Automatic annotation (TrEMBL):
Keyword Nuclease: yes
Family statement drawn from the similarity comment of this UniProt entry: Belongs to the REXO4 family.
PANTHER family in alphabetical order: RNA EXONUCLEASE 4 (PTHR12801:SF122), RNA EXONUCLEASE REXO1 / RECO3 FAMILY MEMBER-RELATED (PTHR12801)
The UniProt record lists the keyword Manganese: no
Protein name according to UniProt: RNA exonuclease 4
Species name: Gossypium darwinii
Matches recorded under InterPro entries: REX4_DEDDh_dom, REXO1/3/4-like, Ribonucl_H, RNaseH-like_sf, RNaseH_sf
Gene3D superfamilies in the record: Ribonuclease H-like superfamily/Ribonuclease H
Domain Exonuclease residue range list: 103-279
UniProt KW keywords: Exonuclease, Hydrolase, Nuclease, Nucleus
One biological process term in Gene Ontology: rRNA processing
Length: 327
């Protein structure tokens, strides 16, 4: 029990972690759970049952093979496909009223080569934003502030004719801020549960916002590259291509890359994570001051008398679970 208490004190096991539905093993990421179920060295008892009753996308376990077939049909693409995956490559949308009220937007950009000493200075050439229903709310080509020596046409599908009449970067910045702040002053944005500002979803958002010279509060950002349950077992980021194929069941970024396609993928991943059903807690994060005494050394004797289940109920997560956005 002494070792178990020390383990629980540092592991931050919680009801928000990915958990094996067969043996209740807690994992730090879905990749770790996948290895436990179907990896090179899985737990054999779990592997046998999961092969019959397990969903390869969300890693849940159903009550029968028939229920699994029905579930996987809905689970593919995360059950979200309001928009279409076929959009004109040259479509320019500077802002539309699609009739939906949305609180979350996804952002993606397409880069071209801006030169530099080693040819690695990227320049933003195309920006796309979609709402929760996969409708385009902003999609423009960006006029480069410097000459572009290489448009990377094979991957970007962008040529000089696309950027010649593009929107200036300053104007793009202003329009994105308008969509994100939604009429609220930046200094008034305090939390995702208060105010009118929108949650921003994307993949590797920090460098993307740097390219656009934008700042946005970190607590309003949902980055699929930095979300612990979607990261690798060694805590490194997974590519968006891998996450889409593994958790949504289809391929992206084959041939010419489309930022709309990336927006849709990140939005679907976000909604899949947000729609997880976890037990509600008053103070769900370990960093909350009200949880600081849950595993205090002064409670050692009391903790050693608890069952593992009781210790789990007082343990808290060390990351913000996206299911909390749906509260």
């Amino acid at each position: 029990m002494e070792h178990l208490v020390d383990h629980m004190r540092t592991s931050y096991h919680s009801l928000h972690e990915p958990t094996c539905a067969l043996c209740n093993k807690h994992c730090r990421s879905f990749d770790s759970l996948r290895e436990h179920l179907i990896g090179p060295l899985p737990k054999q008892e779990c592997k046998k049952l999961f092969k019959i009753l397990g969903c390869e996308f969300c890693l849940s376990v159903l009550e029968s093979p028939h229920a699994l077939r029905l579930h996987q049909h809905r689970c593919r693409f995360s059950g979200v496909n309001y928009g279409t995956m076929s959009r004109p490559a040259n479509k320019s949308t500077t802002g539309v009223d699609n009739g939906f009220s949305y609180h979350v937007v996804a952002l993606a950009c397409q880069m071209v080569d801006g030169g530099g000493n080693n040819g690695s200075m990227d320049v933003c050439a195309r920006v796309c934003m979609v709402d929760e229903y996969e409708n385009i709310i902003f999609h423009v080509y960006v006029k480069p502030p410097i000459p572009v020596p290489n448009y990377r046409y094979e991957n970007s599908g962008i040529g000089g004719e696309h950027l010649r009449d593009g929107m200036p970067l300053k104007q793009v910045q202003r329009r994105i801020e308008e969509f994100l702040c939604n009429g609220e002053a930046m200094w008034k944005i305090r939390s995702p549960k208060a105010g009118k500002a929108r949650i921003l979803v994307g993949h590797h958002l920090h460098p993307l916002l740097q390219f656009l010279h934008l700042e946005y509060p970190s607590f309003m950002i949902r980055d699929t590259a930095a979300y612990p349950p979607l990261m690798k077992t060694n805590k490194l980021s997974n590519s968006l291509k891998y996450l889409t194929q593994t958790y949504l069941g289809y391929d992206i970024q084959a041939g010419v890359q489309d930022p709309y396609e990336d927006c849709v993928a990140t939005m679907r991943l976000y909604l899949r994570m947000r729609n997880q059903v976890h037990q509600r807690e008053d103070y769900p994060q370990a960093s909350d001051p009200r949880n600081r005494n849950n595993f205090a050394p002064s409670r050692q004797s009391e903790l050693e008398r608890m069952s593992p289940e009781a210790m789990l109920t007082i343990s808290r997560s060390d990351y913000y679970c996206w299911c909390l956005d749906s509260m």
